């Protein structure tokens, strides 16, 4: 007997760890991994809501989120490769062309 | 305390610890491996929620395909030992962590006050199977499913174009 809010709480904790990673890290690839962690925590809360309300729509939505995450990671990693080719670094502190 | 609750707590602690280890390791390969561990733990949590199909998709697509792509890029860029970025704590990072903690406190405040059901719905036993997901996906959600193929095609073309040596 696990109450629903245990799952939502775990999802919130994982999401906030991902937020800390995105805000504090400097390696572009690990920042990208933190974004994947946040996507996963949202998937967990969608599955929990789906299971506790008996509605399959949440699981269909997670299916689409995973498909979009696959597309996003392919394009994002291609951008990181292009960045590394131009600047020879993945440290985002050194990539400041668009910084005001 | 029943067995399911004990299992949930073990998995929750393992998921949080692996996520924290992921964002604190300096070597990106180690981070990627901790993230794979985190994905496996979340897949087991999906099984606890009776979502078998999504659990398998999580392992094959996330822990399999996406994380192998990440490790492949890390190896391609040769970001292993020697090019590690030194850990630096400055005021901006402390403020960022503080704001993330405030966000967590706000969300948890509302989550704990939520009137929530305490058991999985009996209907959930049958909705997580491949058969039921497939039926819904190809009847009610056929159009979004087809659009996903266009999205994946666009991502494929975009990735090849961006990672090419030179823009023609």
State the main characteristics.
heterodimer, A: 100 residues, mainly alpha, Helix Hairpins, B: 168 residues, Four Helix Bundle (Hemerythrin (Met), subunit A), 2 domains
CATH structural architecture of the largest domain in chain B: Up-down Bundle
> What is the strand content of chain A?
under 5%
Largest interface: A-B, 70 and 84 residues
| SS field, number of helical segments of chain B | 7
The CATH superfamily of the largest domain in chain B is known as NADH-ubiquinone/plastoquinone oxidoreductase chain 6, subunit NuoJ
The ordered H/E elements of chain A are: HHH
State the share of residues found in helices of chain A, binned by percent: over 70%
Concise structural overview:
The complex is a heterodimer of chains A (100) and B (168). Chain A is mainly α and 100 residues long.
Element layout with pairings:
The complex is a heterodimer of chains A (100) and B (168).
Chain A: H1 4-24, H2 28-53, H3 57-87
Helix pairs in contact in A: 1-2, 2-3
Chain B: H1 3-24, H2 28-48, H3 52-76, H4 91-112, H5 124-127, H6 130-139, H7 142-163
Helix pairs in contact in B: 1-2, 2-3
Description:
The complex is a heterodimer of chains A (100) and B (168). Chain A is mainly alpha-helical. Chain A has one domain: Orthogonal Bundle (Helix Hairpins), CATH 1.10.287.3510. Helix content of chain A is 78%, strand content 0%. Chain A has 3 helices and no strands. The radius of gyration of chain A is 17 Å and the shape is elongated. The termini of chain A are far apart. In chain B, helix 1 (3-24) packs antiparallel against helix 2 and helix 2 (28-48) runs antiparallel to helix 3 (52-76). Chain B is mainly α. Helix content of chain B is 75%, strand content 0%. The model of chain B has no long low-confidence stretch (mean pLDDT 87). Chain B folds into 2 domains: 1-84, NADH-ubiquinone/plastoquinone oxidoreductase chain 6, subunit NuoJ (Four Helix Bundle (Hemerythrin (Met), subunit A)); 129-168. Classes of the chains: A mainly alpha (100), B mainly alpha (168).
């Amino acid at each position: 007997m696990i109450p629903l809010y245990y799952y939502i709480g775990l999802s919130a904790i994982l999401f906030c760890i991902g937020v800390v990673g995105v805000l504090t890290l400097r390696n572009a690839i690990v920042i990208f991994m933190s974004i994947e962690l946040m996507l996963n925590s949202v998937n967990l809360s969608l599955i929990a809501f789906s299971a506790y309300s008996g509605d399959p729509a949440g699981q269909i939505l997670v299916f689409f989120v995973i498909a979009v995450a696959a597309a996003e990671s392919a394009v994002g990693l291609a951008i990181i490769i292009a960045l590394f080719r131009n600047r020879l670094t993945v440290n985002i502190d050194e990539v400041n062309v668009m910084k005001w | 305390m029943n067995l399911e609750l004990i299992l949930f707590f073990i998995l929750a602690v393992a998921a949080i610890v692996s996520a924290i280890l992921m964002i604190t390791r300096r070597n990106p390969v180690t981070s990627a491996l901790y993230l794979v561990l985190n994905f496996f733990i979340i897949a087991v949590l999906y099984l606890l929620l009776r979502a078998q199909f999504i659990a398998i998709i999580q392992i094959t697509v996330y822990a399999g395909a996406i994380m192998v792509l990440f490790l492949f890029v890390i190896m391609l860029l040769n970001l292993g030992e020697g090019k590690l970025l030194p850990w630096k704590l400055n005021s901006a990072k402390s403020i960022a962590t503080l704001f993330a903690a405030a966000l967590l406190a706000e969300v948890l405040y509302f989550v704990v006050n939520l009137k929530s059901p305490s058991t999985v719905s009996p209907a959930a036993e049958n909705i997580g199977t491949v058969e039921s997901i497939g039926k819904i996906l190809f009847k009610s959600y056929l159009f979004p499913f087809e659009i996903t193929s266009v999205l994946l095609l666009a991502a494929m073309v975009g990735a090849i174009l961006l990672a090419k040596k030179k823009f023609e």
